[in-house]
Amino acid sequence: MSFHNPIVEAGVAGLAELFRARAVTPSEATEVYLARIERLNPSLGAVTALDVEGARAAAAASAARWREGQPLSTLDGVPIAVKANIAIAGLPWTSGIGAYRGRLPARDAETVERLRAAGAVILGALNMHEGALGATTDNLAYGRCHNPYRHGWTPGGSSGGSGAATAAGLCAAALGTDTMGSVRIPSAYCGVFGFKPARGFISTVGVEALSWTYDHVGVHARSIEDARLLAEAASGQVLALKAPEGPIAVLDFEGQVKVEPAVANAFAATVEAARTAGLLVTALRLPDYDFSRLRRAGLLVCEAEGAVVHATALGEDPEGFSAEFRRLLDWGAKQPAVKLARAYRDLAKAVAEVEARLAPFSALLTPTAPQTAFPFDQVAPANQADFTALGAFMGAPAVAFPTGLSPDGLPLSGQIISHDPAVALALAKTLAAAAPRSTPAGFTA
Amino acid sequence: MSFHNPIVEAGVAGLAELFRARAVTPSEATEVYLARIERLNPSLGAVTALDVEGARAAAAASAARWREGQPLSTLDGVPIAVKANIAIAGLPWTSGIGAYRGRLPARDAETVERLRAAGAVILGALNMHEGALGATTDNLAYGRCHNPYRHGWTPGGSSGGSGAATAAGLCAAALGTDTMGSVRIPSAYCGVFGFKPARGFISTVGVEALSWTYDHVGVHARSIEDARLLAEAASGQVLALKAPEGPIAVLDFEGQVKVEPAVANAFAATVEAARTAGLLVTALRLPDYDFSRLRRAGLLVCEAEGAVVHATALGEDPEGFSAEFRRLLDWGAKQPAVKLARAYRDLAKAVAEVEARLAPFSALLTPTAPQTAFPFDQVAPANQADFTALGAFMGAPAVAFPTGLSPDGLPLSGQIISHDPAVALALAKTLAAAAPRSTPAGFTA
Q: Given phi > 0 = left and psi -120 to 50 = alpha, else beta, which region is A406?
């Protein structure tokens, strides 16, 4: 199954080919996405603010460049949507928080500036988990964002709108942010690629995520090539694909992280696919890495730093925050300083130990999340970010890649972490290719 | 005035020449320093542990190498002393804290290993302000370390023993640590050079300073050439001297940091000397840098991280800490986490702003401390570290260099901060050369 509309099916990389072949214009592509948003978003809840005029004007300008054979980049004219904590000039920069409903930035975030300079059409802002602290995107202020594979089920988070919009074909690709897994978890739950380059690779200026220590900007896309192209344009840096030269470590998480059977089976199949592809894979345990303790340490860093980020608004408009988000920030804010200092130290120490164990390997392969998406009425599993947080703490490039659907029809995902983004991207491409591709049924038309 | 003994007068660089010329052997040099320590330390209080046998054995081995014309480095056979928070195998690794009186490390700190590999003779451990948190070195557990220029007056701190031992000629040069000024302040108060290379330039493995965020290892020496040689051996990296290519910013601190008249006059003379030397100097204000607020933020980081560093001993042996040190750590530990998170952020932001203002300049010139040494019975001025903390927060190379004596006979000092250590060292050499050299009267014999 795939998208019936060739413009949506083309994603990012294919769209440039269509533009070059004069089969489609950027204005036509933009209208297709705007129409899909109008038709499909009301029940999906992925898009929270649209810049229809701006998108049309950008598309027209791009169309003129393509007509003259002078596109600014491969991304020229490609419709991109952006997580709501990344500033878009003139659109509400909400970070998914009610208190910021009226905040209209005068300037784009640096990464959005880069996208515009590459000719991209910025469609608008995407829903997210409030304040980027959480992974359900059950947002009380801006509405639930649903999983395109199952209404009433979470798309994951915090970049839930980015994962859902990309999977549902409401944009060619999307920007998200990732502090402990916020790009990769929704990519996993929605069955798309989620690529978090190394910390700082994409500028965080004009991005209000959660924790200045661990925030990253990343991309959501329907193919590795699309993810690569968007990350290049968003960063202004070149990205390649490269086969690994050394062995791949396969995380043996037995007894450390509780993983759903469907995820464990898919992971085993991914490992088998790696072997079949001729990759040298070796099981690796991280016996000193206490997943839940370090996740909690990371959360404390997020809560305490988040309390600083939102201090003014928390004081002036406490009702502009959900009780739950306020409770988390208040809790973090009030912990003793020594506990926060210890969290920073424990995390740095754990990363150093993991790095030492990973030194002989080209990459680390793990599941992306220990489970598939779950219904909104179910309590979010505490260990959702256990595998993704590791990559965030390391500040290393990490890719979530789709590995098919579970027996009950929900997306499965594997994660590759490698200090070489070219290796991470190449492995994700190889391993995803071994699993069946899927498209959410309600969105193919 | 200078040291009558040619071995002490030779410092580090001159000693290698004497060894090469066979005028002196490492064993003779070591005996001179051991004898001086025996004679002068009881009233000075700079040395807290000696390794007489180890030093003699190292000197004998070095003597054999020099005889064979095979020295390991220019530092081969040079007697060096080490601050008590830097591990020396088999000597009490006290960090100036009573609770650690019996802690005998099996291994040297990495930097001490490097010094031994270069052939240096490690004499022993030097007194310091308890736990490196403070700048008087009035140590209740290991005794007061006095200023060689005036008994009953502080040598500064926290590397007070390193500054005093170097100034008094109890070692050729010394290692210290610097978190907010702990190498540079005692160097200033004792009239020697204090060089803190960039953060991480000298390994901190096996060094228990205070704050893993801001700790640096640095050197105390009686000349820039000596400082350069010791920092090279301690780091295993090459250091040169290089004239600045751009203008030098001179900090205009008027209305921001209260500076003693003697220090202000000496600073004006240093600026004049820079002009005379043909350097382009420009006054620079840092209007957004709130010296006292940021110093307090830095102190909170030190207190909270220090509380983590010493948590076990604080729990098991609270009486092994002075009430004052315990009070500081307890206070830091108990502050709300949000305050600590804000301190980290404010410091990072302030550094980014300062870096932007310093971008057009090759270096920044400031006084080292706002005042000269003071009597132990006087309350330590709160602003002692205002100028040095800036260099620590930046993580940039910084040199304190002597600029003569105040009208009442106490050492004065200027500070050069530059991201290029070669420029920092070269400027410190030029500017120190413009002021009269001095040696503390009671220690010349």
A: beta
